[in-house]
Amino acid sequence: MSFLSTINRKFGTYRGMIRLAIETIKMWLGHYSHCEKIDWSKVQRLVFVCQGNICRSPYGHILAKNLGIENVASFGYATTTGQPAAPQAIKVAKARGVSLNQHVTTDINNFEFLEGDLLLVMESRHLSKVTACSQQGSNIQVTMLGLWRMPRLALLYDPHNLSDEYFHQCYVSIENATFNAVKKYQASRPG
Question: Which CATH number fits domain 3-187: 3.40.1080.10, 3.40.50.2300, 4.10.910.10, 3.20.20.140?
Answer without folding.
Answer: 3.40.50.2300
